[in-house]
Specification:
coiled coil; DUF349 domain-containing protein; about 600 residues; mainly alpha; DUF349
């Protein structure tokens, strides 16, 4: 059967007179209903014959009910009855008082139930005021809603947008009017008359626009044909889910924009559209196969994620804090991937999810056990860091920069290598260590800054010495000049960091001049060397002495292969001369080494 949202054929073809008569009946009926709904408000609630105590109980029940504010007529009747009881009893007491011979003006009596009645009246007044306020707000909201409906109805026949489905719109308007809430009685009659006036105007317009109706039928038929044509194309859509989604949209268009059409086309076009829809729905088996393949792939991926999490909690002999921090980040990323991955086959969904949760719990258990075990080692780490702090404090005022700078850099490196300490001590010991380090390096920077000007002057002096060294040749006395320049160079302090290349240039020039004058650097007499420089030079001389002694022994052994080797032998003359030179060189080196060791 066709699904139509517009008025039925009989409704569409009603004569306007009949429509007006029916609507007039509706109007009268709605007015009657409204009067019936509110007629009880004009009648007094007749209470049963109740005692005063029972009357007060009934009043209390009304106050405690959820609709207390709406029952003001019933409450007022009970209130009047209670007041009547109390008044009568007070009058009886007064008569008894006067009959006893007392003056009427001296009579005073407070009824025991008066205070309770007053309290009930005050409480009910608050609830009734609240109810009346809500009633007024609700009626005002309903009035605005009904006036809006009337305005839409008016626009429907006076200013409709092209292509508006009048039949669908009028049905929606009538349904909304029927469901709209009550308004104030003073507003209802005028509002209701206004609504049915415009409703009659709409039907008169519809009756006079048969041509429009035919055009609407033709336009909607064309839409149906386009929808059918698109549905036929969807039969060949390779992505089944896409075809189903678009088919659902086409059905929505059919209901909302392709109705009504002429009667002779209604069943025909619907049956054709329905047949094509059924064929597309038959392809769900194909979709099921695709979904199954995707779900199996998702299951494989999720199982792989679970396996990766398990690996992170296994083989942990060498696991440390860094390992666990990295593992926590990896697990969080794996967890996110797991949750982002699509569904798995329904029959395995619970098992897969439980495996995932169990694996996560196991990982967290192993991780937590590790950190619990750290508590013992944290105390040891604390003791080691306290030792570093003490060393830093002992040396933070040192100005032996060559040693102290290296020391503090090593202290900082050692600090990083030591593991966690108890959380309560972390900030305290770090602040102490940082303060000691900052004290040293601030002092170092201040003193270094003060010596910068001296370093610049040192650079100028060294540059002059370098120029003098470059001018030396191999003439007599050159070695003595070189020794004097080297001593002067040694007595000059540091140069700025960006000018340190002058030291390399000096050493390179020095080696060239020594070579030119045929003298070994270790034989050079120089003064002003620092303790480290002297130690280094002594080490080099010792190595050179060992090498020379080894060479001399080797040469002398070679001479032993000859029968009675003498200097007269032309073949051995050069060997003897080489041995003599090396022994002379050896003696010079030994004297220099002795001078360094003895401090001469």
């Amino acid at each position: 059967m066709t699904t139509e949202n517009n008025l039925s054929e009989n409704e569409e073809n009603k004569p306007s007179v009949e429509i007006q008569e029916n609507e007039a009946k509706i109007e009268k009926t709605e007015e009657n209903n409204y009067e019936e709904q509110h007629s009880d408000e004009d009648q007094h609630v007749v209470a049963e014959e109740l005692s005063l105590a029972d009357t007060l109980k009934e009043m209390e029940k009304i106050i405690n009910s959820s609709d207390a504010g709406e029952r003001f007529r019933e409450f007022n009747a009970l209130k009047d009855k209670a007041n009547h009881y109390i008044h009568d009893e007070v009058e009886d007491k007064k008569h008894e008082y006067v009959d006893a011979g007392n003056a009427p003006e001296n009579f005073s009596f407070e009824h025991p139930s008066q205070s309770k009645l007053s309290a009930l009246i005050n409480i009910f007044k608050e609830k009734n005021d609240h109810f009346q306020k809500n009633q007024e707000e609700e009626q005002k909201k309903n009035l605005d809603q009904r006036q809006g409906i009337i305005e839409r109805l008016k626009n429907l026949y006076t200013n409709s947008e092209p292509g508006t489905n009048l039949f669908k719109s009028i049905r929606e308007i009538k349904e909304e009017w029927s469901n709209a809430g009550q308004v104030a009685k003073s507003e209802f009659k005028i509002l209701n008359n206004n609504y049915f006036h415009h409703l009659n105007q709409f039907y008169q317009m519809l009756d006079m626009n048969k041509e429009f109706l035919e055009q609407e039928y033709s336009h909607n038929l064309e839409k149906r044909q386009h929808i059918i044509a698109r549905a036929k194309e969807l039969e060949n859509e390779p992505v089944v889910q896409k075809a189903l989604n678009e088919l659902q949209y086409l059905h929505k268009l059919w209901k909302e924009e392709a109705e009504p059409v002429a009667e002779e086309f209604r069943e025909k076009t619907w049956d054709e559209f329905k047949e094509i829809s059924n064929k597309i729905h038959e392809r769900k088996t194909e979709l099921s196969a695709t979904i199954e393949a995707e779900q199996n792939a998702n299951l494989e991926k999720k199982n792989e994620i679970i396996a990766n999490i398990k690996k992170l909690a296994e083989n942990l002999e060498n696991a440390n804090h860094n390992y666990w921090q990295n593992a926590i980040k990896q697990v969080e990323a794996l967890r996110t991937d797991f949750l982002k991955t699509g569904s798995v086959p329904r029959k395995l969904s619970n098992v897969n999810w439980n495996d995932f949760k169990t694996t996560l719990r196991n990982f967290n258990t192993v991780k937590n056990n590790y950190y619990k075990s750290l508590k013992g080692s944290q105390q040891q780490n604390l003791e080691e860091k306290l030792k570093l702090i003490q060393t830093a404090k002992d040396n933070m005022l040192s100005e032996d920069w060559d040693i102290a700078v290296s020391l503090f850099k090593k202290l900082q490196e050692d600090w990083k290598k030591i593991g966690h300490v108890p959380k309560s001590m972390t900030n305290k010991i770090w602040d102490e260590f940082r303060e000691a380090c900052n004290t040293f390096f601030n002092n170092y920077r201040e003193k270094s800054s003060a010596s910068t000007d001296n370093w610049k002057e040192n650079y100028k002096l060294k540059k002059d010495i370098l120029e003098e060294l470059k001018a030396i040749s191999d003439e007599e006395g050159s070695v003595e000049k070189i020794e004097a320049l080297k001593t002067s160079w040694n007595n000059i302090g540091k140069v700025p960091r960006d000018k340190m290349a002058i030291n390399s240039e000096f050493n390179r020039t020095l080696r060239e001049k020594l070579k030119l004058n045929k003298i070994n650097e270790l034989e050079l007499k120089e003064e002003g060397l620092s303790e480290n420089q002297l130690t280094d030079k002594a080490r080099k001389i010792k190595n050179q002495i060992a090498d020379l002694e080894s060479e001399i022994v080797k040469l002398e052994n070679n001479l032993a292969f000859f029968n009675k080797p003498t200097r007269d032998n032309p073949l051995l003359r050069d060997t003897f001369n080489t041995i003599d030179d090396k022994k002379a060189h050896l003696e010079t080196l030994k004297q220099n080494l002795h001078s360094i060791i003895s401090g001469e």
